[in-house]
């Protein structure tokens, strides 16, 4: 199993992040409720996205390693739709999205940003991420260009900022199962991009 953590900012550069030594949790169970409490504490401490990602990323790794049951909390997608989302935790006025997502082989996502910070942990399968950067000109304010890519495998964790633009595709014959957590979405700043026509739409 790989143990790599990545951070992609709005410039589309994929940075390898140092893994923290989590030895004190080796023999203890880090449960979902504790993760949620820690998360709430962090979000009260800081609104800086990079800081949030820095602090939450190791907790996501700890949770996925320690609370193994989470890895099985997904629903199988309808073959026609090609993907499924299962909510792991949802509470009114606690503006976080925590879900398990499954993509079937052959699926390709839109090119999008999230309008909030996000952390995705790959549970199984292989997923190619393409990273894009805004490249506006006078006639095409939503023009983007592809600036990098990264294949993520089981055990990899990627963190994204509000303005980070990416698209994903499933590689190989295995579905991609992932754990996903996102902050409060700013829908006015969340876009799907059309890299051919240089346009973007809110979603
Ligand atoms: Fe995404």
């Amino acid at each position: 199993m790989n143990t790599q953590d990545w951070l992609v900012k709005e410039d589309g550069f994929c940075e390898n992040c140092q893994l923290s030594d989590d030895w004190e949790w080796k023999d203890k169970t880090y449960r979902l409720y504790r993760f949620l409490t820690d998360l709430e504490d962090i979000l009260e401490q800081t609104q800086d996205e990079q800081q949030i990602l820095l602090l939450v990323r190791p907790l996501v790794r700890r949770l996925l390693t320690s609370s193994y049951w989470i890895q099985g909390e997904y629903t199988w997608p309808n073959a026609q739709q090609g993907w499924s989302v299962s909510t792991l935790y949802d509470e009114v006025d606690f503006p976080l999205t925590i879900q398990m997502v499954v993509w079937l082989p052959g699926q390709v996502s839109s090119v999008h940003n999230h309008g909030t910070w996000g952390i995705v942990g790959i549970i199984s399968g292989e997923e190619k991420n393409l990273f894009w950067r805004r490249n506006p000109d006078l006639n095409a304010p939503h023009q983007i260009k592809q600036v990098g890519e990264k294949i993520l495998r089981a055990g990899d964790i990627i963190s994204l900022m509000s303005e980070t633009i990416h698209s994903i595709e499933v590689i190989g014959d295995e579905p991609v199962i992932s754990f996903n957590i996102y902050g409060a979405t700013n829908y006015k700043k969340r876009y799907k991009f059309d890299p051919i026509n240089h346009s973007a739409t809110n979603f």
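The mean pLDDT is 95. Residues 5-202 form a domain with the Jelly Rolls fold (CATH 2.60.120.10).
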